[in-house]
Amino acid sequence: MTRNIFHKTTLCGIALFFSGLLAAQSKTVAKASVDRSQILIGERIQLTLKADIPETQPIRFFQLDSIPHFEFISFGKIDTSNTGGGTILSQVIHITSFDSGHWVIPALPLGETAATDSIPIDVGFSPFDPQQPYHDVKDILEVNPPEEKKGNPLWWYVGGGVLLILLLVLLLRKPKKPVVKPAPPPIDPYKQALEQLEKLQREKLTPKAYYSGLTDVFRVYVEKRKGVHSLQQTTGDLVMQLRSIGMEDGIFKQLADTLRLSDLVKFAKYEPSPADDTSAFQIIKGAIDHIERSIQEPANPNPG
To answer: What is the distance between the alpha carbons of residues 106 and 30, in angstroms, rounded to a whole number?
Structure first.
């Protein structure tokens, strides 16, 4: 009887161990690391974010807008690697700080079940070394003016006469009137963006080509309309610049999420649903309409 109880207890323990192990393997793991924990003010820190996502979990990644006491310098692209049990996403972000003191990069959430560990960072000034030798201010050194070279003044007169003749010839010549060609009418960026969006809706494209087309239409429009040089920038850098053009908070957040979703489709092989496609199209078009209205309204003030 005692032996049967012992065997049952052992089997239950083994079952609980393996069930716990399987549960741990099916959870998303979020990690964050830095290349240094002490910097001088303004020095760069390399922050590496990593997400190990099992195949049973949805693909998602960190969405960073700000970190207290730190400034973003650049966002690297999201790298993807597939494992036997899921997907690993990683990204390198360069940050800095202009506030001296002991700060902490907080735990960064990934969804509702995973988060990174917090990372302490010390930011200080450049230390003064009293052992270095003192260098006094040197006296002003006198410099002798160069000796003037004597030359034949006749050549000065001849050269001046030649220059005067050339000047008179140029002044007396009747300039030809240049043929002015009429400039082609400027292309309206807003109209061009709407036409390209309609074309995307008509064409049957792969998810990668569709989301690339959506983001390209927005990038070209915002560069022509607002002067935001976005074509060569990463999505993170573009989102940081869009904060400065005065978009409403709700529209800005939806646009930032859509641009990041586009990155997941293009680089992480994320499969969007038809509802995602429709929502992404409406958000991109809505952001373009919002920017266009903000430009047109000051030009047409409401009288009275």
So the answer is: 13
User: Does 178 reside within a domain?
Assistant: no
Question: How many Å apart are CA 39 and CA 105, to the nearest integer?
Answer: 14
Cα–Cα distance measured from residue 144 to residue 178, given in angstroms and rounded to the nearest whole number: 53
Reduced to 3 states (helix: H, G, I; strand: E, B; else coil), residue 38 is strand
What CATH number corresponds to the domain at position 58? Answer: 2.60.40
Q: For residue range 176-235, list pLDDT tens digits in order.
A: 666 677 767 778 899 999 999 999 989 888 999 999 999 999 999 988 888 887 777 888
With H, G, I as helix, E, B as strand and everything else as coil, classify residue 268. coil
Owning domain of residue 40 = 27-124
In three-state form (DSSP H/G/I as H, E/B as E, the rest C), the secondary structure along 96-136 is ECCCCEEEEECCCEECCCEECCCEEEEEECCCCCCCCCCCC
Q: What is the number of domains present in the chain?
A: 2
Q: Is residue 6 part of a domain?
A: no
Residues 196 and 280 in one domain: yes
Residue ending a domain, choose from 78, 106, 124: 124
Beta carbons within 8 Å of 237's beta carbon, 6+ residues apart: 74, 75
Window from 58-62, 144-148, 164-168, 251-255 with minimum mean pLDDT: 144-148
| Burial class, 136, CB count within 10 angstroms (exposed 0-12 / middle 13-18 / buried 19+) | exposed
* Residues 41/72, Cβ–Cβ less than 8 Å: no
List pLDDT tens digits, range 91-133: 999 999 999 899 999 999 988 888 999 999 999 987 655 666 6
